[in-house]
Amino acid sequence: MKRILLVTLAFVLLSSLPADAAQTPEEILSSMTTQEKICQLLVPAHRKINGGTTDDVTVLNDEVAQLISTYPFAGIILYGENLTANDTGTLLIHQLQQANVSQDTRPQLFIMVDQEGGLVARLARSTAGISPMALAATGNPTHTQEIAQMMGTEIQALGINVNLAPLADVLTNPRLESLVVRTFGDSPDVVAAHAQAYLSGLRQAGVLNCLKHFPGMGSASENTDDTNQPVIVDKTRAQMDACELLPFKRSLEAGLVDMMMVTHTSYPSLETRTFQAADNQTYTLPASLSPAVVTGLLREELGFDGLVVADAILGTLITHHFSAVQVLQLALEAGVDILPYSLELNQPSSVEAFKTALETFGAQVSADTNLQTKLDAAVTRILTFKQKHGLLTPYTLTDVQAQTQAQTALQTVSTQEHHDIQWPVALEAITLVDHLDNALPLSPDEKVAVLHYYNSQTRSVNYGLAQLVTAGQLTQEQAAAVKVMNVHDENLLTTLEEVETVVILSSVYYESELSPDSPVPYSDEIKVVLPLLETLRARGAKIIIASCHLPYDLGLYYGEADALLAGYLANGMSTAIETADNQPKFGALVPAIIYKLYDQQADFCGRLPVAIPDVIDGLYQLDQTLLPTGWGLRLASASDPGEPSDDQQPPSDNPPVDNPGNNQPPSDEQPTDDQPSPDDPPSEQPPTDNDQFDDHSPSVPTNPPVTGVGSSSGGCGIFGGAWCWLLLAVALRRSQKR
Question: Cα torsion for 19, 22, 25, 27, to the nearest 10°?
Answer without folding.
Answer: -160
